[in-house]
Design a protein that fits this description.
By secondary structure, the protein is an alpha/beta fold. It has helices at 19-26, 39-46, 57-62, 72-75, 98-110, 127-140, 178-189, 202-232, 237-244, 266-276, 283-292, 294-308, 337-346, 360-367, 390-401, and strands at 9-13, 31-35, 66-69, 80-83, 116-119, 149-152, 171-173, 196-198, 317-321, 350-354, 380-385, 404-412, 424-425. The protein has 2 domains: 9-200, NAD(P)-binding Rossmann-like Domain (Rossmann fold, 3-Layer(aba) Sandwich), CATH 3.40.50; 220-425, Rossmann fold. The protein is 40% helix and 14% strand. The strands form 3 sheets. It has a 6-stranded parallel beta sheet with strand order 3-2-1-4-5-6, with helices on both faces. Helix 13 (337-346) links the parallel strand 9 (317-321) and strand 10 (350-354). The N and C termini lie far apart (54 Å). The protein binds nicotinamide-adenine-dinucleotide. Residues 13-19, 35-38, 41, 84-87, 99, 102-103, 120-122, 155-159, 261-262 line the site of nicotinamide-adenine-dinucleotide. Nicotinamide-adenine-dinucleotide (NAD) binds at residues 13-19, 35-38, 41, 84-87, 99, 102-103, 120-122, 155-159, 261-262.
């Protein structure tokens, strides 16, 4: 490494929910190249618009040193490469490192003596040095920790959250040598006002990130199990959680669907690695199974309630409010609301989905679901509040019940209504 943070020319590979906010921040202070294989994404950003709604048009304008490209040649003038590409799982719930390895191969072609490659994508402990470094060495012909160096600095942003933003979240950093760890730490400290935490190794930083999401997943799994038990006992889960929450060390988790690009996916990275060293995780996978089964559970509850009200299930019309994986953002990735929609359809129910946050074409492309632009009034045998978007909160019980027929079931999955305003709660 032969440069300081002052003559750093950054390339950020993958301009999604993680990469773009980072690029916009670095691009205020340092020469920053935003690189992405999705040309349509680059075009919208060049036009000053971010369809993920994470970075405003003004913020993009303020990033005056940020440029964009999909050309490998453009990377050659850079000396720090930050990788923020997706790390999904495949249909067998195994890590799919394809984007990470492809991005590494591209960097390898541009890598020079003294350059630093920092990974931000969520991975299992060991992935940077065991999987990515060999690709960098192969493509560049350079030697790790002699000619080039690596860092790992996981991201903690939360899509749709305007309070916890990239600069206001403390960031874990690490490097492949003590000097590189200092360089990586200083680099991030130049933009992260919340400060940084230098982990003792890349593996420690990788493991820290993956357990943050695993811990959340397992905790939500426990609360989901409690919700199933309390439903059987005819006790309101929210009321129990409120009462238990008065103890200083009771953790405030809520039951619900666990979707999105992180919490429902990252634990499989850890379990994959654990299995590769001969340990078969029990609690982590039990949490995953429970959380993945919640869509079917919700529909079984709804159908029972419809039958109790003598509402014919086969051919019924159900309105699902919200399709995104979380509230107040347009992110549809790995949304578990689709499990509810699929399960309802299996019962012969006609489902309308309404979500004011999403792009209908995305829902069609990803899930083959055509959302309604406005739900019908007085038309549905049941309404499920699946996502706590502010628009649904503003409608209140009266506004939402107006979509139902005179006899209908209202299921509030997200506790946005007072306890007695819904017929069913999770
Ligand atoms: N979204 C989150 O809340 C969040 C939070 C923390 C960590 N993470 C992790 O960060 C990583 C990125 O997630 P994201 O949500 O930003 O993903 P994303 O899908 O929003 O964006 C990824 C971008 O990478 C681009 N891309 C894919 N392959 C590429 C390649 N080979 N070269 C260059 N660009 C490529 C895609 O076109 C896309 O624009 C993942 O590992 C994720 O687990 C995400």
């Amino acid at each position: 490494m032969n440069f300081t943070t002052h003559d750093t020319r950054i390339a950020i590979l993958g301009l999604g929910y993680v990469g773009l906010p980072l690029a916009a921040e670095f691009g205020k202070h340092l020469s920053t190249l935003g690189f992405d294989i999705n040309k349509a994404r680059l075009e919208e950003l060049q036009g000053g618009f971010d369809s993920t709604l994470e970075v405003s048009n003004e913020e993009l304008e303020q990033a005056s040193l940020l440029t964009y490209s999909a050309e490998i040649d453009a990377l050659k003038s850079c000396n720090v490469f930050i990788v923020t590409v997706p790390t999904p799982i495949n249909e067998h719930k195994q890590p799919d490192l394809t984007p990470l390895l492809k991005a590494s191969a591209v960097i390898g072609k541009a890598l020079k003596q003294g350059d630093v490659v920092i990974y931000e994508s969520t991975v299992y402990p060991g992935a940077t040095e065991e999987e990515c470094v060999p690709v960098l060495e192969r493509e560049s012909g350079l030697v790790f920790n002699k000619d080039f160096y690596c860092g790992y600095s996981p991201e903690r942003i939360n899509p749709g959250d305007k309070e916890h933003r990239v600069t206001s979240i403390l960031k874990v950093t690490s490097g492949s040598t003590p000097a590189v760890a200092d360089f990586v730490d200083n680099l991030y400290r130049s933009i992260i006002t919340a400060g940084t935490y230098k982990a003792s190794s890349i593996k420690v930083a990788e493991a820290a990130k993956v357990i943050e999401n695993t811990q959340r997943d397992v905790n939500i799994g426990l609360i989901n199990e409690l919700a199933v038990i309390f439903n059987k006992l005819d006790i309101d889960t929210e009321e129990v959680l409120k009462a238990a929450g008065t103890k200083w060390n009771f953790l405030p988790f809520r039951p619900g669907l666990v979707g999105g690009h992180c919490i429902g996916v990252d634990p499989y990275y850890l379990t994959h690695k654990a299995q590769s060293v001969g340990y078969h995780p029990e609690i982590i996978l039990a949490g995953r199974r429970l959380n993945d089964g919640m869509g079917a559970y919700v529909v079984s509850q709804l159908v029972k309630s419809m039958l109790k009200k003598r509402i014919q299930v086969d051919g019924a019309r159900v309105l699902v409010l919200g399709l995104t994986f979380k509230e107040d953002c347009p992110d549809l990735r790995n949304t578990k609301v689709v499990d509810i929609v699929g399960e309802l359809s299996d019962y012969g129910i006609n489902v309308d989905c309404y979500d004011p946050w999403i792009n209908a074409a995305d829902a069609e492309h990803e899930y083959n679901i055509t959302p309604v632009s406005v739900p019908d009034q007085g038309a549905y045998d049941a309404v499920i509040i699946a996502v706590a978007h502010k628009q649904f909160k503003e409608m209140g019980a009266e506004g939402i019940r107006a979509f139902g027929k005179p006899e209908h079931v209202l299921y509030d999955l997200k506790y946005i209504l007072p306890a007695d305003a819904a017929d069913l709660r999770l």
